[in-house]
Amino acid sequence: MRKMMKAVQLTSTGELRLIETQEPTLSRSDEIMLRMHAVGICGSDLHYFKEGGIGGRAIEQAWIVGHEGAGTVAQVGGEVSRFKPGDRVVFDPNISCGTCDQCKNGRHHTCLNGRFLGCPGQLQGCLAELVVLPESCCVSIGNSLDLNAAVLAEPLSVALHSLRFLHDIEDTDVGVLGAGPIGLCTLMALDSLAAKSISVTDKIAHRRESAAKWGATRTWNPDDPDIVAQILDNHPHGLNAVFECCGDQSALDQAVDLLKPGGTLIITGIPSTERVSFDISKLRRKEISVQNVRRQNNCLDEAVQWVSENLFNIHDMITHTFSLNEAQQAFELAGRYGDGVLKAVVNVAWTPRIAR
User: Fold this and answer.
1) Which of 146, 234, 277, 311 stands 20 to 30 A from 21 (CA)?
2) Cα separation of 38 and 327, whole Å?
3) Dmax of the chain from CA atoms?
4) In terms of Cα–Cα distance, which of 297, 5, 31, 27 is closest to 138?
5) What angle separates helix 227-234 from helix 249-258, to the nearest 10 degrees?
6) Long-range contact list for 119-124, CB < 8 A, 24+ apart?
7) With the CA atoms of 290, 337, 230 and 287 taken in that order, what torsion angle do they form, in degrees rounded to the nearest 10?
8) Do the Cβ atoms of 30 and 98 come closer than 8 Å?
9) CATH 3.90.180.10 residue spans of the chain
10) DSSP assignment of 200-268, as one string?
11) Which residues are bridge partners to 242 per DSSP?
12) d(CA 215, CA 194)
């Protein structure tokens, strides 16, 4: 008889349930079983929790969510060569097929047959005591990096991937619209790569305060009626690039107004709606380039290095931790942006809750 483990399912909009379910097993010789220690709550998790779906994917049955995780190797398949039981790892939550044209051209993040951890109808998530992944998805974090901090490698990898679409970052004027974890990671990376100025907007005061601490030249509230004029007073020729990191239509509109002719709009945020729009006259007259960001591609190793070296005190982004049986409270807090939360982490192996 298979052993049982604890996991957290999203059962309906706004409702999580702690369950007991069968432990997974290794089905292929290249797989690794991980004992989960820490799981970060991502913005996409919150879309599922608050709205029941995102990007055409809806919760139609109870599903284990979570895809930002760190843990230790519990068991390895016969062909696994890079890991052994006890090793500490993080992972890319996207499992690509390796054979489609996208994979053959190095675009594993847009794999035509990809399956994503915690995505309804694809793979059960990592908000569970054990999870099984291919060896190719896993990256060692050594013995010194805190497992809670390690979960930040995955969102940082998305930010690093987005920066690939902006050439010559040094000495450029850049905007970051939205200072949640992805926006803050983008800001930190831009600052480390010597952007000339970084204007950051967010509706939440404590996020703007964090942005100021982590490299923003100046922060702004996007709800101010003259927000674009205020920023352009400081940058009369406009910004070279804008990273839209909140998935908001008004932010997209502001981005187009803020960009100089020939500028680049990089869309990392995921809108709740199925469609967004642009003022095509402005887009055309300025010859704005629009680049969407899809997760990350081969940036996780670099992100682990950045987190391990603590280049910009990224660890401070983790403001709250919860135990597995407090997952409901964790999602509710993160979903309402309460108590100064930036990144909430669920400790699957129970630890006392801490708060900033």
Assistant:
1) 146
2) 12
3) 69
4) 31
5) 30
6) 119/57, 119/67, 120/48, 120/53, 120/57, 120/58, 120/59, 120/60, 120/61, 120/63, 121/57, 121/60, 123/95, 124/7, 124/63, 124/64
7) 0
8) no
9) 4-154+297-355
10) EE-SSHHHHHHHHHTT-SEEE-TTSTTHHHHHHHH-TT-EEEEEE-S--HHHHHHHHHHEEEEEEEEE-
11) 175, 265
12) 10
For residues 229 and 236, is the Cβ–Cβ distance under 8 A? no
Q: Is the pTM of this model over 0.70?
A: yes
What are the residues facing 7 on neighbouring strands? Answer: 19, 128
- Determine the Cα–Cα distance for residues 327 and 210; give it in Å rounded to an integer: 25
pLDDT digits (tens, 9 = 90+) for 224-264: 999 999 999 999 999 999 999 999 999 999 999 999 999 99
Question: Does residue 344 sit in helix, strand or coil?
Answer: strand
Q: Which two tokens stand for residue 146?
A: 């805190």
Q: What are phi and psi of 319, to 5 degrees?
A: -100, -20
pLDDT tens by residue, 10-69 = 999 999 999 999 999 999 999 999 999 999 999 989 999 998 877 777 778 899 999 999
Q: pLDDT by residue (tens digit) across 179-210? A: 999 999 999 999 999 899 999 999 999 999 99
The 3-state DSSP composition of the chain as helix, strand, coil percent (nearest 5) reads 30, 30, 40
In the chain, the amino acid numbered 257 is: D
CATH topology classification for 4-154+297-355? Quinone Oxidoreductase; Chain A, domain 1 (3.90.180)
DSSP string, 58-72: E--S-EE---EEEEE
